[in-house]
Give the backbone structure.
Amino acid sequence: MLGNATCRTQARRALEAVKPNVINQRLNECLDYLIANIEGNSSCIADVTFKQLSAGHINWQG
């Protein structure tokens, strides 16, 4: 659904809502990256930068 601008806006808002409860620094970096990029780039969740940031939490090889 990230192809839809409204969905991207809602996703950013959801990420902003959960961020204050996250204490892991690497996860905060992932959230910061998504918050900054999700509205303008629907494929930011699959780009190299996000994959590098989230590699410790997501297995991208599967």
Summary: The CA atoms of residues 30 and 54 lie 6 Å apart. Helices lie at 5-18, 25-37, 48-54.
